[in-house]
Give the backbone structure.
Amino acid sequence: MGVQVRQRTIILQTIRKMIQKISGILISLALFTLGCSNQREEPILLKSDPSFNVGPSNIIGVNHIGLSVNDLGKAVNFYKQSAGLSLVSDRQAIDHPFSVISKEELSGQMQILQGPNTSIRIMEFDQKDSGRFSEMLEVQGPGVTHICYIGPKAQPIDGRFVKNGATWESSSNAMVNMRGVGYMYGYLRDPDGLMLEIEHAPEPNFRGQLWFGHVATAVMDLTKTMEFYERMLGFPHYRRADNREGPTYDQVAGVENVKIHGAWFRVAPFYSLEFWQFLSPKPEPPSRIKSPNEIGYNLIALETTDVDAEFNRLNSLGIPFETEILDVLDGRAFYFRDLDGNLLAFMEFNPGSNLSLKATISNK
């Protein structure tokens, strides 16, 4: 009996050791697989964009849109909470080229919020100009009217903006199926009165709950604007739509009897410059150049891999500049205006800068 007990004990100990070894192997294999999956993270862009074909241009996208606000802290919190954007900079001085452009000492502070495919720079100037801002924020413009934020239709994002203080511009006070293509549309105003567009997409283009779709500008003459931007960008528009009207357009815009022409330039995968000419209601020609410290959108900054080449190219086209190439935060840039006086910049960032679109995409 004693021999049998010892044999059973030896067998059980052997089985335990085998189980421990097998468990160790399985755990190691699981950790290795997890490590490999982290290294092979799903790319930020979920599918290809057939509309994106800019040819030999040095432009890689819209790096950021500038926003002038009344209270920097409140605005940053609104966009962090509503859009889930990441803060990538502490409070710092606003880039000095604004002082050059406006011919004034426009000091202030800004913070940068980054999304999956572009950023916004929120600025609070020490000397704000809010007296005329309402006329610059009309739906029909002229001027930069809104930024478009897109989320998956299965995970609506409009409620997050409203919960944090946004108000409806759309007369429907809800998202609208405007064109019958599966997308839902709605216009909102942030707490400073800046207009933003919300879209719900039937299929996501980017991984995550939200991405940027376009920045929109209302113009006086769409054909002339398209000619300017084709020369400036170095590639043609990918879409134009004329004489769009109807009750759903009225609902989204929050204006009666809307009639518009539209055009789009794809400057990065699934990101566009959008332009509208309102035939009804007609915009009034701008009476002045908008100052960067007026509450509203104040800059469209395109990123390029060669700012010197773009400066020389635009110079050869006879496009007038507001500045020469200047040192800016983590890079170099030059500034100019489009036909309606909107401020534009071409920027090149230092190698490894976390403000570049290259870093934005690779870090997500």
User: Anything to note?
Assistant: Residues 19-42, 132-136 have pLDDT under 50 and may be disordered. Residues 59-362 form a domain with the 2,3-Dihydroxybiphenyl 1,2-Dioxygenase; domain 1 fold (CATH 3.10.180.10).
